[in-house]
Amino acid sequence: MPGSLEVIARPATSAIDVIRYTEDDFNQSQANSLAELPLTREAGRVTWININGVSDTSVLLHLQKRFGLHDLALEDAVTSHQRPKVEVYDDHVFIVLRMFSENSVHSEQLSIFLGPQFVITLQESPGDCLDPVRQRLKKGWGKIRAAPADYLAYAIVDAVIDAYFPVVDALGDEIEAVEETILADGSKNVAQRLHHLRGDLSELRRAIRPLRDALNHLMPDPHELFHERTQLYLRDCYDHTVQLIDLLDTYREMCTDLRDFHLSAVNQRMNEVMKFLTIIATIFIPLSFITGVYGMNFNTSQPGNMPELNLPFGYAIVWAVMLSVALGLIGFIWRKGWLQPTE
Amino acid sequence: MPGSLEVIARPATSAIDVIRYTEDDFNQSQANSLAELPLTREAGRVTWININGVSDTSVLLHLQKRFGLHDLALEDAVTSHQRPKVEVYDDHVFIVLRMFSENSVHSEQLSIFLGPQFVITLQESPGDCLDPVRQRLKKGWGKIRAAPADYLAYAIVDAVIDAYFPVVDALGDEIEAVEETILADGSKNVAQRLHHLRGDLSELRRAIRPLRDALNHLMPDPHELFHERTQLYLRDCYDHTVQLIDLLDTYREMCTDLRDFHLSAVNQRMNEVMKFLTIIATIFIPLSFITGVYGMNFNTSQPGNMPELNLPFGYAIVWAVMLSVALGLIGFIWRKGWLQPTE
Amino acid sequence: MPGSLEVIARPATSAIDVIRYTEDDFNQSQANSLAELPLTREAGRVTWININGVSDTSVLLHLQKRFGLHDLALEDAVTSHQRPKVEVYDDHVFIVLRMFSENSVHSEQLSIFLGPQFVITLQESPGDCLDPVRQRLKKGWGKIRAAPADYLAYAIVDAVIDAYFPVVDALGDEIEAVEETILADGSKNVAQRLHHLRGDLSELRRAIRPLRDALNHLMPDPHELFHERTQLYLRDCYDHTVQLIDLLDTYREMCTDLRDFHLSAVNQRMNEVMKFLTIIATIFIPLSFITGVYGMNFNTSQPGNMPELNLPFGYAIVWAVMLSVALGLIGFIWRKGWLQPTE
Amino acid sequence: MPGSLEVIARPATSAIDVIRYTEDDFNQSQANSLAELPLTREAGRVTWININGVSDTSVLLHLQKRFGLHDLALEDAVTSHQRPKVEVYDDHVFIVLRMFSENSVHSEQLSIFLGPQFVITLQESPGDCLDPVRQRLKKGWGKIRAAPADYLAYAIVDAVIDAYFPVVDALGDEIEAVEETILADGSKNVAQRLHHLRGDLSELRRAIRPLRDALNHLMPDPHELFHERTQLYLRDCYDHTVQLIDLLDTYREMCTDLRDFHLSAVNQRMNEVMKFLTIIATIFIPLSFITGVYGMNFNTSQPGNMPELNLPFGYAIVWAVMLSVALGLIGFIWRKGWLQPTE
Amino acid sequence: MPGSLEVIARPATSAIDVIRYTEDDFNQSQANSLAELPLTREAGRVTWININGVSDTSVLLHLQKRFGLHDLALEDAVTSHQRPKVEVYDDHVFIVLRMFSENSVHSEQLSIFLGPQFVITLQESPGDCLDPVRQRLKKGWGKIRAAPADYLAYAIVDAVIDAYFPVVDALGDEIEAVEETILADGSKNVAQRLHHLRGDLSELRRAIRPLRDALNHLMPDPHELFHERTQLYLRDCYDHTVQLIDLLDTYREMCTDLRDFHLSAVNQRMNEVMKFLTIIATIFIPLSFITGVYGMNFNTSQPGNMPELNLPFGYAIVWAVMLSVALGLIGFIWRKGWLQPTE
Q1: Which of A83, D2, D189, D332 is the most buried (most CB within 10 A)?
Q2: What ipTM does this complex have?
Q3: A11: Cα separation from own chain's centroid
């Protein structure tokens, strides 16, 4: 049923952080249920409710009733593996994106509801990359406390996007490490490492590209919830996503190039091995045939049977023949240029 | 002739389900011909006629006359292998899409006609994924019974799209299974499995992509038959198709990556085999030549003929020569790094 | 000189069919020159002139003067290998497309001039896929005789597009046949068949894609010669071209996939062959070396020279050594997993 | 400095052709400097100045002053290797494109300035493909002399585009020749020929694609210098460039297909060679081992040492063993299907 | 925190060049801090402040206060590895691009702030490609001193773009050198050189493509800071970037083609080597088997044991047999066409 809430099993404790602030005031509290918290609406006061994992739907239903969130938005918020998107409803904006925690490799889903004076964030598990935002709110740095709720929403999205950069940079470092491995003629697990890199790049790309498109669509169309003043900042966010996609595309291309380069290096080495075998075999096979001939046991007392065996210095002559055959073959191979390395 | 009805042979029994409901009333009946059913038009009552396979055209002609369906739409509805599309006619909307039955792998064509107070669905064979919709209608869950016919049409499209997810997920599982097979260095039928996966992905993509485009075109342009209220729900449908296409694109890319990875793994193993042969052959071919030399039957009583054979400890000397040749070659191969695995 | 008519050598006889009809009247005649035919203009009467190959330009110049055709359009009509297109002139529409005759594999160029009350078609040689249209006109089936000239033009384009389907289906069958060949491990001419298939697909695509684009551009912009009523039918034509392009793209992708699959199958088989050689050679090369050693003719009466040869059961010992070497190598190969098929 | 004129060394003689005409009058003269020519402006008289190579800038500066050409346009005209483009300035249009002379393989740059009553063309060296235009002007064929200057500019562009067709057709012929070579199983220089073909195709594409785009941008936007009447003719030019690009894309695709096809043909032949070696080696290596065994010199007088050698008919038995080994191997290879050609 | 300035360690000395000019006056000075310089605003006087590396933020903060630069623009200016872009703020335009110094291979970031009467440029280190601009300003060449600040900004961007051409040309020369190497059948480091070329091309492309897009977006929308007169010059800049991208795309394609060509050349050479081995081995393996047979030590005194050995001229017969086997094999190989070079 569209708009219904089926919460997938989540961590039992669903801690709720509530931050409320005006330009001059800052107030932070924590609770296990929303009912505990008096959330009276006050002019100029912004409320940020952060839910760390949803264990039961009652919190959500409470939220929905209290802030008038749309069924479909709430359904998306509790369903994991959503595609990042920005959806504009009548009286609130719903943003869903993937977040990398600062000290973790795995991404989780972060849903943001932005209303006239509130921001609600919903993450899959505790621990996030939003501490710089909380810090700025607490210390009153910059204009964040003086600005309306949309600036807070922007600050959260910006913090999430900033947390992509170290992840992308780590992939860039790994790509460089692989390149150095190939150039150093070592080839430990190159194929496998490139395969995993491509997978990671493609996953990141899937997280960032829809976000970029959503930000792009959001920008030219100032919504009553995104004031014109915030537009410049959103453009900055958008620029960052463009830069990330640029980097990911470059890295993907580098992976393809490295795979081709690695393949050609492996091939070259294999070719060298094969050429060595070829040359050894090509020289010795005719020589072995000659020794085979004079190893035959024809009865030399019969006429015409292997008179060479009884020649004085026949052995030396055979050696001379064999040497000239070998030299001829080496000369032929040399002239053909097969001894030069192909790369 | 455009607009003519040539029905391809279908199951003999073409059962017709008719569901009629208002907000407070629900009524379901079944018949073999439309003539049996009194279909009086009543304000606020929505009629859903579901036809399970068309055996003769009389039913269709009856429908066409009764509901004013357009020739071309009806022609498309009875022609299988239509490309999914949404077509807006003067007084009805025609939707055609591919449907996966809940307990079947094969897809069939589902045609939907949406008119002012009616929805007509036409499927190729009995059995579909629409039971949740019927259940919600029967039980009166949610707002489905209170909403006009366009919400029913949306609910049907949504149910069909939801039924894609398990099919796509199954492909994802198969891809992961193939990846594990490759990583475990087994390679049972990998090429063939990837080939079939690509075929399936491409077929699903062909089913979903035109649907996505059609939904996208339908949305910004509110039709008198698709009320503004339903637009939000259509956007949700559209989002799901976007997500499906995203998944399919990712899977397709993963297939390509896996094929490359598999190829490189097969190549590596082959290279290892070839290198082993090369090394064995390279070492023993010169040694065999030496044994061949001393297997020649030159008459040692003639001067200069193989005096080595009569040397005391000549045999040991030959062994020493052979060992040093072997060690020299092994050393050469070692220094060249040919014994290290290339990957 | 632009707009000049240089007729490439065509069949000597350029038969001209003229069909004239109103809703109640149908009249068909045939001539070798237009001058023979009285072509008075009558309200409600549509004239369809079909020219089967142009042998001299006088017919064309007559047509041009009589119907006011544009120089450039006429020049394109007589130049073969035109790219399909729709061009709107002041008082007529010029359509050029490629037509597959019903009983022929080769396509020819069909030019259509649509004016207020006339349609002129110009084909390269007699024999076409337009007989169903003629039949409908003659029998008065459907609304074709009641409709103005643009419906006739649509009907002709529709008949031409319908004639693409069997051609495309035949390619689909051939692709399936190739796939079955590969799966059955046979590989008779697979590369060559795929090469020809790709060529055919690409040729068809070149015929259909510009037509699709032209129809798409024609649709949203109702021309005074294409009435709004005909627009729905044009949309149907457009849908068919989209479906054809879809099919062709799918087939092209399938060809690429099949080529990769075939290549990997051929590779696998080659790898199997090479591995068999490798294993045989790897086992027997060391054994042959051993036999070579004991085939040397060292004088055993000299001290230290091959005492093994005189050992009782030396022969059995050598066999034991050789068997253990062989078993060791087989064991090594077995443990390396080289005996398992790689695919 | 933008807009400055640095003339690259050009042929010493920079002949200047001047053609002046009205509907009834035609006048052609030639000079080495513009100063020699009285260029009075007359209503209805069009002046076409063609400069064959620029040796000194004085001619250009004279032109610039006389006709008011823009700095940037003139700078582009004297700089070779410009990307084809159409630039609209306040009182003149500047067109730059690549021209193939009728009897030459190399292209040169042709710059066209179109003003109210003049056309100035500037080519790198004498000899061009514009003689048909001059002929039509001289003889007064068609409407060229009656039309304003923009029709002359169109006629020049059209003549340049027409001269592309033989060049592109020659590439098509070469591609067909390469295909026939591959199908005939010959493979003389196929890789190199395809490599050069791709280079040529890509160069032509670089010449035509920007021209197509420029014409496309010029068309929908009637400029006061390009009258509406000429628009239809420009559309024809545009169509020709589209057709050329279509051809080039097809040829490029055919080159890729041919390369794949050729590679697979070369591979197949190599595989056949390798399989033949494999089969020969696989059969004879075990047989040689057997002969090696009975070539060992164990002292048969010691117990257990090679009693086979003294068996009556031992030789025949060995032959029987060897034959059965060979037949067994051949049978194995046969059953594996390795003797069938893989393609 | 968005908009904050964290300056990465830069060269200690951050020299500041200030150029101030009107049409008749030119004045250049240098300082280590802005405070030293009296920067009074005068009608018609343009100020160009060029900062060579930023060592402390005080200069920037001074600039920001003095010229009203936006936080986000300033943050981007001091962060290296920005994606080239043009951003329009309320009262200034911010341009960031990559600059190649005239005598250096490495690129650095150049940020340009364009305000009503000022241009501020910020580069990472001293030394740039802007000397021609300075020269033109100093000497009063052209119209640069008479034009407003936007022309100066254009002149700087143009100089930066002009400095790309030698870099791109050098890559083109390297590509040609690689092609010649391959055609001359040498293959020294081809794979590695192509790999590095692709990397360089891709880096340049990343520098130029966003710039092209930014210029394209800037053009159609005349900003109060970019006068209409400058638009023509911006179009020229844009054309240059289009030409550069065109070149880079061509070079990238050529790299791909060269890699394929090189691979096929390496393959061909390897195939030749393998075929030579195959032919040598194929001929000698059966011959060696024959010599092996007659090297067996069967006791010829036993009946049926190797009577051939005692035949008169048996040796000659064996040679005849061996020769006919060899000739037969050579004939077979010849007929199969395996001796012809495959390429």
Answers
A1: A83
A2: 0.78
A3: 27
